[in-house]
Design goal:
GO terms for molecular function: alkaline phosphatase activity; metal ion binding; phosphoric diester hydrolase activity. By secondary structure, the protein is an alpha/beta fold. It folds into two domains: about 200 residues, TIM Barrel (Alpha-Beta Barrel); about 325 residues, Alkaline Phosphatase, subunit A. Helix content is about 35%, strand content about 20%. Helix 11 packs across helix 21, helix 12 packs parallel to helix 22 and helix 20 packs antiparallel against helix 21. The longest helix is centred in the last third of the chain and has 25 residues.
Length: about 625
């Protein structure tokens, strides 16, 4: 038992240390076999790589860059490919390898054979460039590190102080010899069967971390070579504490590291979720009210990211009835919000960019239109532009989603009782100068803030917020979406025949388009808090069906690393546009099981309408 306990403690210590390790920057890249790049040196240099490796052979008195002797070619000399372009940039940067003085550079010369003759030739070739390599006179000097066929450590002192060597973990260096060691390196496969996929086993992690820690104890950076070259491997190597990420793809590594602020999110304090009673969930009783919550751009990866960041809990996951919606548009498997929302609002597929019209441009009756004939009142809410595609599909009929003024003007012809969102300009400065008069003539009260609207709980309301009121949650929006839903429920719940509310978490989509994971997750959490309020009301009311879904997925999000315990998610996006993957449908309340299974997004309309009609 003591052995097991000690082992667990050691594992905990290992991962605690990894969690506290500093994050690597683009300057921690090591361009392995750099001479195989399409543009040697420059490609890695402009990726900000801090270590660049060139294999060399001595041939006819010159050092050539090649992996094998048969690859030796005219003009592919160490001087032409590396020393000259490096010297040019060193001079341009005022005696620094990079313009940013915080960035450093080491040139790793991997000697393929015959170091006894290669090193003297190297010293001869770098002599004209000594201003770049002499750290005794320039602290920003480029470090030269020799690897491959190297002299024995006892011989290190025979070479100039500006010549360093690539050390090995299994060699016991003296204090004097360590002064000549640039870094400690070894092949990953010498210590583990881990192939870069997933994570190393705990014993292997301890072993690998031990190697890195031993190098750090000597004051030396550490590098593994012969590693897989993928984001997952880079992440795991960083957790192990390595200082150089070995890569054949310096630009991809650069992009991964430079964008990490937009790809990683940590939420140390989770919010509490609502625990439903399930008293009316799935019950075979009348559905009087429907709350449709649309997380724009919210696919399964976005939901999983939100779940992990909230330490394993979401309100929407309290729903027991779950299905999948197929989102394709009439003219493309990849839908946009216009076609996706129109399908849910009207029950018919249409082309992308079309709002509330069919593929031939003919107006379609939407849920608020149809339900008004049953005296059921409707509310449409968005935490973004209320003329944007998703909310517009529930009241507008325009064949171009960007026609914001036309969409606003079309509102007066619809049957929405409460409208809440931003974009005052499209309504108040509309080309139809009488638009607001027309809206008021139809009995609407106009409010320009949610606080104003909350003072009135009766009648038809149009709440046109300032754009700043729908800024991102991460920039201070607050709980506008949740409060808007609660206010709309308060106003419409007085209607005896019932109500229909569509509330949109608009900016999950915005974050996906921006490839910004913190943006996505903070918006999803705001949306999920709103879901919690809907579930709570459904329990209190007993006749309300809550449906949570999305119009499409945005960003092609994949999750590379996660910690539910720490609320940490690291992701990556494959596109800044929509994808065609199915999106989930969560349902809670009477007849919630009707939304289980897999079906076209148009079925959401038909299912809602049938239930409100009592069928």
């Amino acid at each position: 038992m003591k052995k097991i306990s000690g082992y667990i403690s050691l594992v905990a210590l290992l991962f605690s240390a990894a969690a506290g390790a500093q994050s690597l920057t683009i300057n921690n890249g090591h361009s392995h076999n750099d001479y195989h790049q399409n543009i040697p040196f420059l490609q890695a240099y402009y990726a900000g790589t801090g270590s660049i490796e060139a294999d060399v052979y001595l041939f006819e008195g010159k050092l050539y860059v090649a992996h094998e002797k048969k690859e030796i070619a005219p003009n592919r000399t160490l001087e032409n490919l590396y020393l000259k372009p490096l010297a040019e940039r060193f001079q341009q940067n005022g005696g620094k390898p990079y313009a940013d003085a915080a960035m450093h550079l080491q040139l790793v010369i991997d000697i393929k054979e015959d170091h006894e003759h290669v090193i003297p030739e190297l010293l001869k070739e770098i002599k004209p460039y000594m201003q770049m390599f002499n750290s005794a006179v320039n602290p920003n000097a480029v470090k030269i590190a020799l690897s491959g066929d190297m002299p024995a450590p006892a011989k290190f002192g025979d070479y100039p102080d500006y010549i360093y060597f690539d050390g090995r973990p299994n060699i016991p260096y003296t204090t004097e010899q360590l002064k000549h060691v640039a870094m400690i390196s070894d092949a990953l496969g010498n210590y583990t069967h881990w192939n870069g996929k997933g994570t190393p086993t705990p014993p292997d992690s301890i072993k690998l971390k031990g190697l890195v820690n031993a190098a750090h104890a000597m004051g030396k950076p550490f590098r593994f070579w012969a590693t897989q070259d993928s984001p997952n491997t880079w992440i795991q190597l960083e957790k192990l504490g390595v200082d150089w990420i070995n890569t054949d793809y310096p630009q991809q590594l650069h992009d991964f590291l430079i964008n990490r602020k937009k790809l990683k999110y940590v939420n140390p304090k989770p919010y509490s979720i609502y625990q439903p009673t399930y008293k009316s969930d799935g019950a075979n009783k009348k559905v009087k009210n429907v709350i449709l919550l649309i997380g724009d751009g919210m696919g399964l990866a976005q939901i999983q990211a939100g779940l992990t960041a909230n330490h394993g809990q979401l309100n929407m996951y309290q729903c027991r009835s779950i299905g999948f919606s197929q989102t394709k548009a009439a003219n493309s498997d990849n839908t946009d919000s216009a076609a996706g929302a129109t399908a849910m609002a009207s029950g018919e597929k249409t082309d992308n960019r079309y709002i509330g019209v069919d593929a031939q441009g003919k107006p379609l009756a939407n849920l608020p239109d149809v339900l008004s004939q049953m005296k059921i009142k409707s509310g449409i809410i968005s935490c973004g532009d209320i003329t944007d595609a998703t909310p517009a599909a529930f009241y507008g009929h325009i064949s171009e989603r960007d026609s914001s003024q036309k969409i606003a003007a079309d509102f007066v012809n619809g049957n929405v009782d409460v409208l809440i969102g931003s974009n005052q300009r499209s309504f108040m400065q509309n080309k139809d100068a009488r638009l607001m008069d027309k809206i008021k003539a139809k009995g609407y009260q106009l409010f320009t803030s949610l606080a104003e609207a909350e003072a009135s709980d009766k009648g038809k309301q149009i709440v046109l917020l300032k754009n700043e009121d729908t800024r991102p949650v991460k920039d201070g929006r607050g709980d506008m979406l949740k409060q808007s839903l609660l206010h709309t429920i308060k106003v419409l719940h007085q209607n005896k025949p019932g109500f229909f509310i569509m509330a949109e978490g608009a900016q999950i989509d915005y974050g996906g388009h921006a490839n910004d994971l913190p943006y996505v997750i903070t918006e999803l959490h705001d949306f999920d808090r709103t879901v919690g309020e809907a579930l709570k009301f459904a329990d209190e009311d007993g006749e309300t069906l809550v449906i949570v879904t999305a119009d499409h997925e945005t960003g092609g999000l994949s999750l590379l690393d996660a910690s539910t315990a720490n609320g940490m998610v690291l992701g990556n996006f494959s596109t800044n546009d929509h994808t065609s993957i199915n999106v989930p449908v969560f349902a809670y309340g009477p007849h919630s099981r009707a939304f289980m299974g897999t079906y076209q997004n148009t079925e959401i309309y038909h299912k809602i309408l049938a239930l409100l009609k009592g069928k």
